[in-house]
DNA sequence: CAAGTATACATAATTTTCTTATGTATAAGA
DNA sequence: TCTTATACATAAGAAAATTATGTATACTTG
């Protein structure tokens, strides 16, 4: 995420969330999708993405399937059953976090 | 922030934001204020907070003033002029970031 | 047809920013 | 007296990025 050094720790959640929406995605596709959704604001770096994907796979949340397309290798990732549960868990955890963050950033609205 | 390892990188912004609201605050007070605002959800650890305060001071964004209260030392921090500008900058940077994050988490709303 | 850009994977070194553990010290409450 | 709260601080280690590098194929452009 090169748009700034904000938000370390949300990349795994983003990946899981995108895979809830879309059955199968490959790494490069994820970087492009995030770029598109944020109108170029988030640029996921390979050095962050690939280790994250490998870790999620190692933890049993993702499975892979390699395809050769136009002479290039693509490694498609999809959610396992556990990955599906983890996606839901991580997303709501992140949303709760964001709600709390808003309370701190806008203290007037939360408490006096 | 022990509630999770989410959002590394937002602590300095939180500190600067709180000091926009409240002229002077000391470290322990900041931990308690954040705890109060989030109903106990965010617990800022000393190991994270003090180095952050020292860094912000070293960067010229905060000035300190030590007081002895009830036999205990308190180190009050307040925003410098540059700190004030930095607070505004960091907060809007974070808010833009959060808006983009929402676009990724809720792709349906952003794009098809 | 050579060079640059895009696609597609991956890893290593380094940096940033936490957590956890530890240390010092005073005050208040059980 | 012992535990909890207040109040500071630093050090070791872990987590998660950034930056740099490497490999390889395809497409575009001059």
From TrEMBL, chains A, B:
Location of the Transcription regulator PadR N-terminal domain: 15-88
InterPro entries given in the database record: Metal_resp_DNA-bind_regulator, Tscrpt_reg_PadR_N, WH-like_DNA-bd_sf, WH_DNA-bd_sf
Gene3D superfamilies: Winged helix-like DNA-binding domain superfamily/Winged helix DNA-binding domain (1.10.10.10)
Record bears the keyword DNA-binding: yes
GO molecular function, one term: DNA binding
SUPFAM superfamilies: Winged helix' DNA-binding domain
Keywords, in A-Z order: DNA-binding
PANTHER family: PADR-FAMILY TRANSCRIPTIONAL REGULATOR, TRANSCRIPTIONAL REGULATOR RV3488
Protein name: DNA-binding protein YwzG
Protein's organism: Roseivirga thermotolerans
Gene name in the database record: ywzG
């Amino acid at each position: 995420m090169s748009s700034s050094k904000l938000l370390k720790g949300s990349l795994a959640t983003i990946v899981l969330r995108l895979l809830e929406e879309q059955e199968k995605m490959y790494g490069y596709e994820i970087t492009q999708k995030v770029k598109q959704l944020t109108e170029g604001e988030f640029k996921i770096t390979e050095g962050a993405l690939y280790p994250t994907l490998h870790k999620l796979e190692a933890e049993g949340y993702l499975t892979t399937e390699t395809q050769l397309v136009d002479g290039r290798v693509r490694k498609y990732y999809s959610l396992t059953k556990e990955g599906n549960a983890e996606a839901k868990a991580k997303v709501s955890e992140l949303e709760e976090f964001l709600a709390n963050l808003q309370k701190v950033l806008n203290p007037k609205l939360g408490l006096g």
